[in-house]
Amino acid sequence: MNIVLFGPPGAGKGTQAVKLAEKFNYIHLSTGDIFRKNIKENTELGQLASSYISKGDLVPDEVTIKMLEDAANENPNANGIIFDGFPRTIAQAKALDSFLQTKRNQKVDKMLSLEVDDNELIKRLLERGITSGRPDDADEGIIRGRIEVYNKNTAPLKNFYMQQGKCVEIMGVGGIDSIFKRLASELA
Ligand code: ADP
Prior knowledge:
Largest sheet: 5 strands, parallel
Radius of gyration: 16 Å
Number of helices: 9
Distance between the termini: 11 Å
Bound molecules: adenosine-5'-diphosphate
Number of strands: 5
């Protein structure tokens, strides 16, 4: 099973992806986590990514796609993969389809889209910024910019998956466990 967990910044993708991966014994691949690990270790990729991430911009597709494929290749026999934070552009979605098709003879099975309104997102991200140490969560201007980037570049992906009948909208507001139950019931 290849699952795309989708939603705007602050929708709860990371939190829920970890829980879903554990319950279903899937691999969790988060492009944001991989970038942050590289930033922490000050790799070349980290330095490049950081120049985009700190401003709230997307890292260029070419870099992101290559990184994601490398991470997927480290897990050739995964029971399933939860993609968290990827794809974020149509080009990334097409690259993912072609990767899964040519390298694994697989496809994206489902896209679960967490629905949360903008005011709630901004509140959550500012709260996370207090403890996360993430520079992209510390400033309301950058947070609003990320939501704009999401609306412009990433939100159109919903249509991409909807046209294939793969998109399921999940209400992303409420307790972590109740949202988890809604998500898990789609994978059971
Ligand atoms: P959030 O979902 O809270 O925005 P992430 O941890 O998923 O946080 O991503 C943090 C940042 O990493 C993004 O704002 C973006 O700059 C970069 N990033 C993550 N995934 C991608 C991607 N698929 N394509 C381009 N940039 C990405």
